[in-house]
Amino acid sequence: xxxxxxxxxxxxxxxxxxxxxxxxxxxxxxxxxxxxxxxxxxxxxxxxxxxxxxxxxxxxxxxxxxxxxxxxxxxxxxxxxxxxxxxxxxxxxxxxxxxxxxxxxxxxxxxxxxxxxxxxxxxxxxxxxxxxxxxxxxxxxxxxxxxxxxxxxxxxxxxxxxxxxxxxxxxxxxxxxxxxxxxxx
Length: 185
Description:
Distance between the termini: 120 Å
Order of helices and strands: HHHHHEEHHH
Strand order of the largest sheet: 1-2
Structural class: mainly alpha
């Protein structure tokens, strides 16, 4: 059975008329009953529509950004291992093992890590999910191999001393020693 829809304009108009009446006014109840009868819905459905109409709809799911198949800690561990696979297998041209192959190797053979032996069950990790979390958490190839930005070496005050060379140069030391020896003779 198709669900009856109340037009949005009708809900807005009803909301405006209800806002003009006191909260416990019997005219509100009559207005709700008449509108419900006009559109062929129950009063409960009309109240529900009024309640949901004022609520903004979320753009993303409530659990957006968190893995559904595993815990976030486990998924992050698997992503770290796969990112290490990719970096370790990259050549001078920047080519590296694919995510699919890294997942296959991890599922088939597993890997020994400082946290212990890791071997996910077959079919748990998918290419799209792993690539999404690699990029989201910053484990993608571009960010992992990027050089850190250069930081300018600058003093906070104009007369601040950053460098002090205490070492005596060999030529100066030899000249002074030679002068001291000549003076003794």
